[in-house]
Amino acid sequence: MPPRHLVCPLCKTLYEFTVSAKTCVRCGAPLFTIYENLEHILKSTLIKAKERAIQGLGVWSFSELLPVRFIGRSLGEGWTPVVKLEKLSNALGVDIVVKNESRNPSGTFIDRGTAIDVQAAYESEFNSIISASLGDYAISLSMYAKRYGIRVTHYIPEFVEPWKLYMLTLLGDAVIEVEDYLSAIKKASKLAAKHSHYLSIPCSPTVIDGYRTIVFEVVETLQKIDWIAVPVGDGVLATAIFKGLNEIRETLNVDTPRILTVKLEENYGKKQKSIETVLVELSGGITKNIIANILKDSVKYVSIEKNAVFAFAAQLAELEGVVVDPVGVASLAGVKVATELGVMGKGERVLGVISGSPSKDSYVLYKVIAHSGRSTPIYRIYNNRDIVYVSNVQKEILKILYEARQCHAYGIWKKLVSLGYSITLQTVHHHLKSLVEKGYVRVLSSNGRRVLYTISELGEEYLDRELGI
To answer: Residue 125 pairs with which residues in a beta bridge?
Structure first.
């Protein structure tokens, strides 16, 4: 049964529950659902949940604790395995188990939230959804919308990895590329309001409640651990974990673990404003880190550089045979940092949430291998196999980037024209996207519609091997 009310966790403003309510109109914070008779519902639902899981209900095992009227259509999300990592525990001096969210249908925890959000849209008789995201959320949303025959239009920043756009194209939904994430949020919100479409964004109350089912699945483990380590992108997962732990603590009167949030620094491409900041700007509130304020007294924060994450991903694969996207192991890499800083004591018990299917991006895999110290076999692979086709125009683009070190598409186009190539700017954009996907070119930054490109280490090695540059 849907809750009757929502509450702002910052300013405590109460709202009547509706699926269109996303954030607090006063301060812009994500809203929390309030369930009546929560203690009774929580206890009875947790008792029935495992039996329901055996029946294949996924996150719908906790249907009474979700803000919808009926059980939705599962793709097998939820009830991901909890695995003890003995070798890594010995290496770091803490007792580590992981909740492996890469086992969800799209490879991320996001499926827990979109499964609920699409059901909410369906129950409210929407036949179309408008979304704004950085890619992974959009893919998951489209997967679940297909189960209901609901159309989705995605607003996506233009620097998003090509493979995500290909996946969305495969799913058959409309994709509109815009300058950046702020533009995506604004345009999606405007279109949804104007034409009465359902707006799906990661910080919706329905999505938060779906994410928090991670906590319910490990309720028997909570009193056996000291920390839950969570990666922080937009901060919504950490907020959902916080909400779930509070509900467990207040209704079952048990101690719950502390939260360690791990922020990955120096992201690829343009550094985007976090979603909470964007939503405050849209609602007219004061720009600030809302989610940090919600969590400030309940969590510890550490940050980690991307190179350290690559190195840790390699260590995790070698020690434990666990291979996920490097960004997805940021939580465990943060545990290492936390022990080094003394935030986490030796021998403490940690549950790390990891997420993201193993990367097939050649550049990402190369970086992981390079940080493992085992890059020599890569040269044998390249010498023995022509695994990537690069056209003559793309070779010229690589040479231009090698010489210029960084350049916009327009500058590359002008240089190609001066070299005698008959080519359009649009075609140059196509070649650049292809080279980014192959791992030979990286997006250095994005400023409005102008994307700045640079050649990657993999691209330099290709030129050295093929052209002797």
So the answer is: none
Ramachandran region, residue 266 (left: φ > 0; alpha: ψ -120 to 50; beta: rest): left
Answer left, alpha or beta for residue 22, where phi above 0 means left and psi between -120 and 50 means alpha.
alpha
> Helix (H, G, I), strand (E, B), or coil: what is residue 198?
strand
The single-letter DSSP state of residue 181 is: H
Last residue of a domain, one of 188, 206, 224: 206
Residue 86 lies in a domain: no
Least confident of 32-41, 272-281, 402-411: 272-281
Q: Which residues of 286-311 are buried (b: 16+ CB within 10 A; e: fewer)?
A: eeeebbbebbeeebbbbebebebbbb
Which of 109, 113, 189, 118 has the alpha carbon at shortest distance from 151? Answer: 118
DSSP notation for 280-326: HHHHT---S-HHHHHHTTTEEEEEEEHHHHHHHHHHHHHHH-----G
205 near 30, Cβ under 8 Å? yes
On whether the CB atoms of residues 79 and 57 are closer than 8 A, the answer is no
Q: Could you give the dihedral angle defined by the CA atoms of residues 213, 219, 220 and 224, in that order, rounded to the nearest 10 degrees?
A: 120
Task: Give the CATH number of the domain where residue 399 resides.
Answer: 1.10.10.10
Which domain covers residue 122, as residue numbers?
Answer: 110-206
AA identity, residue 87: K
Burial of 25 (0-12, 13-18, 19+ CB in 10 A): middle
- Residue 292's identity, in one-letter code, is A
- In whole angstroms, give the CA distance from residue 363 to residue 441: 9
**pTM passes above 0.85:** no
Contacts of 213 by beta carbon, 8 Å cutoff, 6+ apart: 59, 61, 62, 65, 66, 78, 112, 244
Q: Is residue 15 part of a domain?
A: no
Contacts of 212 (CB under 8 A, 6+ apart): 240, 241, 243, 244, 247
Cα separation, 131 vs 155, in Å, equals 6
For strand 5-7 and strand 14-16, is the pairing parallel, antiparallel, or unpaired? Answer: antiparallel
pLDDT tens column, 269-284: 333 334 333 333 333 3
